[in-house]
Amino acid sequence: MFDDLAIARALHVAAVVHWIGGVLFVTFVVLPAIERLAEPAARLALFDAIERRFAFAARISTTLAGAAGFYMTEVMGLWSRFADPHFWWMHAMVGLWAIFTLMLFIAEPLFLHAWFDARAARDPDGTFRLVTRLHRVLSTVAVVVILGATAGAHGYLPL
Ligand code: HEM
Question: How many percent of the chain have pLDDT more than 70?
Fold first, then answer.
């Protein structure tokens, strides 16, 4: 039997795995490898080349995750959850998605890239450390959101 909600949930989780898995890989594998293998002046160019390819794929998975997420919210009639702090993980999902969507579709193409290049020319070492810190913060938040959303969606609401 056709089950649109099960399909939406499967697409949602697959998109999140691709997108957040990529962010974790960049944070905990690519950035440390670049730091170890490349001279400070070459690090950002290398990071930029790798991240640019991932940013393209991540635009597709964030869009799919958001579309499937809002579809489930609408079809399952879950909008009232946003008025209940027990469902903090629903707010967290949308908040994290909004940050990435703004970054990938608006900030990066409009001004972030130029700002980043200018800062990198002035202070390559500090800029690389800033990039690493930001990736660690977003990765940590993403893991908390995944734990909260999975536990919450399966009826476990400790907070
Ligand atoms: C526009 C943004 C998003 C919306 C509207 C949304 C919406 C939803 C909805 C409605 C559910 C099903 C809840 C239930 O069954 O009670 C869900 C599940 C889930 N979402 Fe999201 N979500 C969004 C973004 C995210 C993000 C950014 C992540 C991870 C970083 C995420 C991870 C998950 C996980 C892991 C589940 C649990 C799947 C399961 O075990 O059944 N979602 N989401």
Answer: 98
